[in-house]
Write a structure and sequence with these properties.
single chain; 153 residues; 4-stranded parallel beta sheet; 4 strands; 13% strand
Length: 153
């Protein structure tokens, strides 16, 4: 039974971890395909993906399509939407800033793993690469979980 029709990755400004997760997830095979997006908590104006994030995606064989950051809005929530924040702090901010929040977890919480996806403010290209690898590993686990849910396991 299909539980979700849409998946939104949320990070602080929708220019780094969220778009990396979105681009990696879009390359994976799901038994029940989802609309996959990313959103930010503070998006003052639309921006492209961070250049370091784009570089590590491309170097890992992922496409970096024309991403433009978008603000998370009330209309993004619904019974058929899974919202995965990168950090507990971001999840808490969503709870406090939005009404009727449903299906909200951190990415690691949804996978029953401790910790957050680390923030990358001022980080080196190498740190972006490590974060991309972490996100890729988490996405692989997420795909398995979503496919198992689709099969009723």
């Amino acid at each position: 039974m299909k539980r979700y029709n849409r998946l939104i990755f949320v990070d602080s400004d929708d220019t780094c971890r969220g778009p990396m997760a979105k681009n990696i997830m879009r390359e994976k095979h799901l038994l029940n395909p989802l609309e996959i997006d990313s959103r930010g908590l503070v998006v003052l104006f639309s921006e492209p993906i961070n250049q370091k994030a784009e570089a590590v995606l491309i170097s890992n064989g992922y496409k970096s399509n024309e991403h433009k950051s978008q603000q998370l809005v009330q209309e993004d929530f619904g019974d058929d939407v899974l919202i995965l924040a990168m950090e507990e702090q971001e999840k808490d901010k969503i709870w406090s800033n939005f009404d009727n929040v449903r299906n909200l977890y951190t990415l690691t919480e949804y996978l029953k793993i401790n910790g957050d996806v680390p923030a990358l403010y001022g980080a080196s290209l190498q740190e972006y690469g490590i974060c991309c690898e972490v996100i890729e590993q988490l996405i692989c686990k997420l795909v398995i979980k979503l496919n198992e849910e689709a099969m009723g396991l």
